Amino acid sequence: MNIEEVRIYCLSLKNVTESFPFDDVSLVFKVENKMFLLLPLDASEPSVSLKTSIEFTEGLRVRYAAVEPAYHFNKTYWNTIYLERDMPSDEIRYWIHHSYREVIAKLPQKIREQYADE
What is the pTM of this model? Predict the structure, then answer.
């Protein structure tokens, strides 16, 4: 999976927006104004950083050498996945969607209802 494929996949998810909040060299993807993924555009090795619960974070890091604690966020919850290492594209999409769903799960019930089919 490459950076553009990650971008297209993120934007295919319901109500996802992208922006350049930090330094114009990273894209941030949000749902309901809550960030779930950072896509560095200037990294020497293509990667994405995404948020997962503590229960999933450890398993993700143990299972794949391509996953490391994110250097720019809370390392307990944020993970950097290196796109050109050993993780298959379908797994990358799975974890992106998982991060997206975790953010939705923390939204107020009334807002969450519109994401029931996602």
Answer: 0.84
